[in-house]
Write a structure and sequence with these properties.
alpha/beta, 2-enoyl-CoA Hydratase, Chain A, domain 1, 6-stranded mixed sheet, 4-stranded mixed sheet, 9 helices, 12 strands, 19% strand
Length: 248
């Protein structure tokens, strides 16, 4: 589900679960383990995360998750929250190379990174949970506010709008836009620039910047996760979720 390549101290993680890289529990676990190994690998100085095909990630594998019991889904949400928190605090530079559509849970993983490069063209990026009757984990909201400010965060979350790469750039949701064929080269350049910084200094500064945000995430996460699960299993939201089809 995840491919790993290494080159000159840069690790490239490619999400490769089916055609849309939808997130389920084993996928979340595997991505977390992969990042954990890279965090402790002294030869790796920066990490790029990208996807295969037309999607960075569709987000949650909704048809599969609908088969989960409420307790199993709550367990999955706890693992997903742990994953994006670990990405937000990852001790090395973490760059998202958004090769295609970056939706909902996929967008959450992207905003956890230090820098986002997105391919121009037809790809869209969105936190569109409100359109299918879902809320979001508290940590996601805190990360989004950190990235783009409270006003823009409110606009993104209330509307559930899908943004082009250029529109996302104007919001600050991504940091750079380039043609699809130049995406990985652009991400590698960013990663190499970051990798030239002294590692312990980068980690310290990142902790100073993001540590207070992560503390607020942790303070609010448990209660918000319970609310997330309750809303997910509400009759109105469940009806909308069952209408969702995953199409590449």
């Amino acid at each position: 589900m995840i491919e790993l390549a290494r080159e000159e101290g840069i690790a490239l993680l490619t999400l490769s679960r089916g055609k849309v890289n939808a997130l389920d529990e084993p996928f979340v676990e595997q991505l977390g383990k992969s990042l954990g190994h890279l965090a402790s690998d002294r030869e790796i100085r920066a990490v790029i995360v990208t996807g295969q095909g037309k999607f960075f990630s569709f987000g949650f594998d909704i048809p599969e998750l609908l088969a989960y019991s409420k307790n199993s889904f709550a367990r999955y949400i706890a693992k997903f929250c742990s994953l994006y928190t670990s990405m937000f605090l990852f001790p090395k530079p973490l760059i998202a190379a958004l090769n295609g559509h970056t939706m909902a849970g996929g967008c959450i993983l992207a905003i956890a990174c230090d820098y986002r490069v997105m391919a121009s063209g037809k790809a869209k990026i969105s936190l569109n949970e409100i359109t299918f009757g879902s809320t979001l984990p508290a940590g996601c909201v805190e990360m989004l506010r950190y990235c783009i400010g409270p006003g823009n965060a409110q606009a993104v979350l209330y509307s559930g709008a899908m943004y082009s790469a250029e529109g996302a750039l104007r919001l600050g949701l991504v940091d750079q836009v380039c043609p699809p064929e130049e995406l990985l080269d652009a991400a590698r350049k960013v990663a190499k620039d970051f990798a030239q910084r002294e590692g312990s200094a980068f980690k310290s500064i990142k902790t100073l910047l993001r540590g207070p945000v992560a503390q607020e995430m942790a303070r609010r996460e448990k209660d918000a996760a319970l609310e997330f699960v309750d809303i997910w299993y509400s009759e109105a939201t469940w009806r909308k979720l069952k209408e969702i089809e995953i199409r590449a």
